[in-house]
């Protein structure tokens, strides 16, 4: 059972805002699930990076909504966003410079306060200016997470048509990847906790992309990639592949690229970095 369930009282009635807020609820549940786990520190690194991109993305979408709708409280809302963004950046700085100074409980408390204070107190007042304003909705949907903080435009962001399989034996990381991908509207996201289950899912249905770890029980990522590339099924053999792993030495990277991965990312990985790689890989294999 989830630690926090999405409730009607949290809804603004504005689709892009509610979708982003559901992502926040999912992140709170993921932080809660890793409290006290053996993988708490590793999971927290990825969660913090994803949260940093989430704040940039959500706040920019919300501000575009308000700009388009002519909301008079926009500048005050921007100041609130700047404060929350600064708190996230400070938490990441502490985590990176002093390991152990930020724990999952700290992040959970921050996110819960954000959920109650920001959404229920500060977001509801602007809804009457935005509800039903399709031009404002479209302006928010046009915001690209890959172009935030000076990122280069991705070659393709047709998220709703994408089919992605995540193969990783780390439960927390699988759920986080699913949250990031679903949060931007990827049409189909499936997960597998082993290479064996990954093979089974690929045999049942086509995917545009596989995201896999290097080290999994029973088989490593290179062996998994080699088997996919050698498949007699041309759809499987030509699937896009991204390896995301904490084993990020140059030797591991070289082996992964030689096996045929399209991209190699080091954990912890940010949402923006992941989505840029997803967009590149899917675009390359669809042309």
Automatic annotation (TrEMBL):
Q: Which InterPro entries match?
A: CheY-like_superfamily, Hemerythrin-like, Hemerythrin-like_sf, Hemerythrin_metal-bd, Sig_transdc_resp-reg_receiver, ST_Response_Regulator
Q: Which GO terms describe its molecular function?
A: metal ion binding
Q: Which Pfam family name is an example for this entry?
A: Hemerythrin
PROSITE patterns in alphabetical order: RESPONSE_REGULATORY (PS50110)
What keywords sit in the KW lines? Iron, Metal-binding
Q: CDD domains, from UniProt?
A: Hemerythrin
GO biological process assignments: phosphorelay signal transduction system
Q: Which family does it belong to?
A: Belongs to the hemerythrin family.
- Its name, as the record gives it, is Bacteriohemerythrin
Species whose genome carries this gene: mine drainage metagenome
